[in-house]
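step=encode ok
step=design start
structure_in=
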């Protein structure tokens, strides 16, 4: 068990904002926080449920807006589902116990701040976070709440960001 300075240092390393809970988590030897039911199996079930629910909820991006099929990835406790269309990316990121976030990545222009983790090849990308209202909540113990939250997120995204999501029009005419 960690005590004293080790516990203090460990609690500062965690960025979730719940220092007391995270400090207790580190003090218990790094097991999952109590909000996830105390086991990594609960976290794994929720991550799998998130990927399934996100793929279902954001499926309209593929036929309606010509995005490619989603690609999912996990990094530690965090998981991502990414939809790409050319140089445009719509990733949905989530970590158990927190709220899912929808981001929009476009090639960085003049005056845009480039995001290093979004760089592909030599192209820099800028990030924009749409202002989606939280109309539903994710219960860390109930995977069914993901469907309601992500479904409402997709509905709001299609209303607020329809210009961003719209397929660029090509008229088929060549200029001579």
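sequence_out=
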């Amino acid at each position: 068990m960690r005590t004293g300075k080790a516990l203090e240092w460990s609690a500062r390393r965690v960025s979730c904002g719940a220092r007391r809970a995270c400090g207790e988590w580190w003090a218990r030897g790094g097991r999952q926080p109590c909000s996830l039911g105390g086991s990594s199996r609960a976290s794994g079930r929720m991550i799998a449920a998130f990927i399934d629910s996100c793929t279902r909820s954001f499926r309209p991006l593929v036929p309606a807006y010509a995005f490619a099929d989603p690609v999912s990835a996990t990094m530690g406790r965090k998981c991502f589902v990414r939809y790409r269309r050319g140089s445009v990316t719509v990733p949905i990121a989530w970590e158990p116990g927190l709220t899912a976030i929808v981001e929009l990545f476009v090639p960085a222009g003049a005056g845009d701040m480039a995001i290093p983790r979004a760089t592909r090849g030599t192209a820099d990308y800028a990030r924009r976070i749409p202002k989606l209202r939280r109309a539903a909540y994710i219960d860390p113990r109930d995977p069914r709440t993901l469907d309601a939250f992500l479904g409402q997120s997709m509905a709001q995204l299609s209303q607020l960001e329809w210009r961003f999501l719209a397929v660029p029009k090509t008229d088929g005419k060549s200029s001579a």
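step=design ok
step=annotate ok -> Confidence is low (pLDDT under 50) at residues 1-38.
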